[in-house]
Specification:
589 residues, alpha/beta, Glucose Oxidase, domain 1, Enzyme I, Chain A, domain 2, TIM Barrel, 3 domains, eight-stranded mixed beta sheet, eight-stranded parallel beta sheet, 25 helices
Length: 589
Amino acid sequence: MTFSVHGLAVSRGIAIGRAVLVASSRADVAHYFIEDEKTADEITRVRISRNAVMEEITRLQQDLPKDAPHELAALLDVHLMLLQDEQLISGVKHWIVDRHYNAEWALTTQYEIIARQFDDMEDEYLRERKADLEQVVERILRHMKGVASPVQPAAQAGAGRKLSQQDLLLDDTTDVPLVLVAHDLSPADMLQFKQSLFAGFATDVGGKTSHTAIVARSMDIPAVVGARSASQLIKQDDWVIIDGDAGVLIVDPSPIILAEYGFKQRQGELERQRLNRLKNTPSLTMDGQRVELLANIEMPEDTLGAVTAGAVGVGLFRSEFLFMGRSGKLPDEEEQYQAYRKAIEGMHGLPVTIRTVDIGSDKPLDRHAKAQDTHLNPALGLRAIRWSLADPPMFLTQLRAILRAAAHGQVNLLVPMLAHATEIRQTMSLIDHARATLDNNGTPYGPVRLGAMIEIPAAALTLKLFLKYFDFLSIGTNDLIQYTLAIDRADEAVSHLYDPCHPAVLRLIADTIAECDAQGKGVSVCGEMAGDVGMTRLLLGLGLRSFSMHPSQILAVKQQILRADASKLQPWAEQVLASEDPAALLQSA
């Protein structure tokens, strides 16, 4: 009987195939107490399995194909660091020695304790790093049981299956496509997934910034995450349609539904081919207005994807990714300089906007974790520029690295979460201090344009102050929406109220764009709204001419721009702004 399972759409496209299920190793962990003389043996069991997993991931890194997504390599690094995390190691020893738990029980108990700390994090990206920890524990448990990675055996099991009469609806003449259904997938599993037969995947857990979503988008694989109990509802070898556009899984579809989605799948492929032809097409509206399409990146290696997608620069380099997963050991000036330089050179003369580190109580580093445990609302606490100004030596190190890298190309320096004049003046003073230090040392550096993020309503309401000091502004819509509507995006109880089309949000965005235009200053949108094709025409009508988004979204947004007459969109955009229900006007347009 046909039924559907709803999740989050994280990577576009349609995948159709037979389900291959991956079970969780933690579901059947034995729980028993051990004798004193057995504690050393249990600790050794964990250590041997952990070392085996480290060797396995190291081999995967060494054998990583040249065309593997850079996000995947970075996530493998995160897993290696988690495997060496002292809190995990010492915690497991504690449960074995002090409580006499068996090794598997000790490992899963310590996982639950650390996982709760991830749950308390406000930042969506870091909160979902709990999934990385879970996968590390899963891999150790599999090695303790002598079980291989679940992905490759599953792929081999389905490799020789031939088409049935129903399979012929897929218009294929070789092997049956397979789709992977799992509670979650690790980066190492994803690498094997890339090398296997799987046409798409679905997971019970995860969000739009989970590693599975990140890698799926970078590999352009249809995927649905956060599908809750999908791995329990779907049976091995069920026919499954993964609709990565709508975030839906259709299980055991009828021949009519199967044929319909087969048609959609072919249409999607044709659409992608058409979009690829736009890569070298200038981004101009029908009335000849130029629109700048920039890329958001996390690591220097991401510039390859940005250039390939036709980005005319990097609108947001999230530098905090260089600081994460390092067990509290921050990158020094030379390491940061080399990373920024690599990104700049990777863009071949195109501008690169580097945002200073956006980290703090909602993105704790190990050396600050204890001090941050008491924060009741990390989103409103010591984060982003507040955190940087509270640690001048760290901030100066980053500023010097960015200034030095600017000698190799066009660099914009972007400061997040500013709200007060005192913060602006402190930031400017530290930038001057960093330049003076480089001058005194005789170290070469380059010029930078200075920009500020508009993500706090207070900033959006005091634009003249900001434009007095900064060359450009960048609207971070994700946080601006959250703070304007007092909505915790991480809280499922109120997440339905997170509304990009709320009149107050749109008014703040519109006023920011208008004020920048009036003063001849640059302005861009770098939040999720920039890559949402449903918002492109409205943003154009509000006067936006610079969008920054994930590289995979650029061509779809460019298509909307090429079809738009910006001069005619302005009156309509004013009507949307004045409406009590802007979303309804957007849908009917």
